[in-house]
Amino acid sequence: MSVYSHGFARLAAAVPVLALADPRRNAERTIELIRAAHERDAALVVFPELGLCGYSVDDLVQQDALLDAVMTALDEIAAATVGLRPLVAVGAPLRVDDALFNCAVLIQDGEILGVTPKSYLPNYREFYEQRYFAAARDAVVDSVLLGSREVPFGTDLIFEATDLPGFRVHAEICEDGWVPIPPSTWASLAGATVLINLSGSPVTIGKESYRQALVTGHSARCVAAQVYVASGFGESTTDLAWDGDALIAENGTLLGRSEAFAMTEQLVVADVDLDRLRQERARMISLRDQVGDVADQVRGFRRIGFTLGDLDRADDHLLRAVPRFPFVPASGADRDRRCREVMNIQVQGLAQRLRATGLSKIVIGVSGGLDSTLALLVAVETFDRLGLPRSDIHAYTMPGFATGGHTLARSHVLMDSLGVSGNELDIRPSCEQMLIDLGHPFADGHPVYDVTFENVQAGERTSHLFRLANRLGGIVLGTGDLSELALGWCTYGVGDQMSHYNVNGSVPKSLIQHQIRWMIDAGSYAPETTAALREILADVITPELVPPGEDGAVQSTEDTVGPYELHDFFLYYLTRFGYRPAKIAYLAEQAWSDVAAGIWPSMMSDDERHAYDAATIRRWLEVFLKRFMANQFKRTAMPNGPKIGSGGSLSPRGDWRAPSDAPSTAWLDALD
């Protein structure tokens, strides 16, 4: 298995040290980098604009001696690619009939496959391209003779790998990507998934950040990958400077970038996810609508096929970051903004629901665990912003048969320190009566802790909360999270699955933990509140429905259903992108196999960082798939609540609609 087996394509951006006006030496350096890209299992390698002679040769580009040398260099490069995998894109000035064109030449396995001329020639400030070149629109032919072979010529070429589904490449040159509607826009609508831009792009102050915005923004609009390569060291500095900026982006995300102003050659390599692009395009119906609007134009694109070969022998180590926590920002730069946005979405959702109902009181169950803690903090923030007294938040801690003294104490600390109306309501008497009515063995003194025993407690808590809401004239605020809904780890109907409004329904467990860490870090709470929050984060995740065993060990949710951090990972890639289980397992291995690799969220301590081997990942993925499919009925009837993030909602009114009686067979078979 290789990265290609899982729907990825390895792309390379090459920045050689230029030999100005010396195509022979440039061919040698180009061939070296092509071979390096092949050794790294790349499917594509892209070079700068006019890279065989140099962008800054000025009037020399019209000299026959230089143009002849460029043709010889092209032949040498083509011959050197025999037996090599990558599709190669090099920049060269080419004579076509009586005109000179600034071109991208596409080569693979010894053959020149096609030539794309530049469409838009800049002729302002330091640029004088119309002095030398004809624009693509001026061409009167759609093929050109290179050596002994007639090859396609035009801006309407898409190069498609026959053995890598979804790998379709379109080339454009520098200024083409800076105009309002780049030629690659039309190509993407015609099916191109990898957009390449061979660029000269002399550098000026601020241009690096502008390029990144241009490349990432264009890849996002086109739902595509983009490779952008600018000229580097060796170009003439008579009047200009060159930084060799090379970027690889995918659907708005920057995957790799060269070192600016390097004086040595560079090869930037990254893996792009073709499956992701395919899934996003299939879901984005508005994109398909636009394809229909311009169908006559995009149908004219020509597809040139080629075969990469031996893809199964490629490397299986992914050259891109795979976040362990896809719902959680890892970097400090994004952390505050993202966490504040999560809180704002939750608060605004609850504020609007209170406004719509005309009610100003909330009833909430507080267990001393993660979910109810975040919901309580959201309620407090909402009431503060609305100018409502916190005393109208009626919080109830409801000890049952397995409630620990420390969690009960934490609940009281939270309620008291936050200034809400805190209450303790012992549900054991009502639970005992129900167990008697049911004829349950526990009522006769037998230690039988089955699902009925657990759900009687969960149901009693919810029943009390709803009746308290009736009595007090408020709404029941739900606390269950997205992870529990995905796994069905909640009691249906008269249980923690139900509420009048749930601010946590789109928030996975891993993000809840992160939100609480962020709130602690913000320093907005009293010391006793902060201390309680730290204890909650450090404690085992437990529903506290089954009494501790003889060894004193409390009931652990993750011992039963598996690590939430893995389940959140599985959930994201299954529902957000519809990936095959085998690919999800592969991504999980890339993210979780080595605790020392990759970036961890900055607020996680060393003892909170875990690693999982392939067998463990597969075991819990199988559990996830079975539980996810079997518990759709709970999500079909889930209460209202705001969507927090992309891929972060299982509401049947939002991101996820599915039958409640579908089996998991196809997904389990795909995992095997």
Description of the structure:
- The protein has 672 residues and is of the alpha/beta class.
- The strands form four sheets. It has a seven-stranded mixed sheet with strand order 13-12-11-10-9-8-15, covered by helices on one side.
Provide a brief overview of the structure:
39% of the residues lie in helices and 16% in strands. The chain is α/β, with parallel strands linked by helices and 672 residues long.
What low-confidence regions span 5 or more consecutive residues with pLDDT below 50? none
Distance from N terminus to C terminus (CA atoms, Å) equals 14 Å
Strand order, sheet with most strands: 13-12-11-10-9-8-15
Q: How much beta, percentage-wise?
A: 15-25%
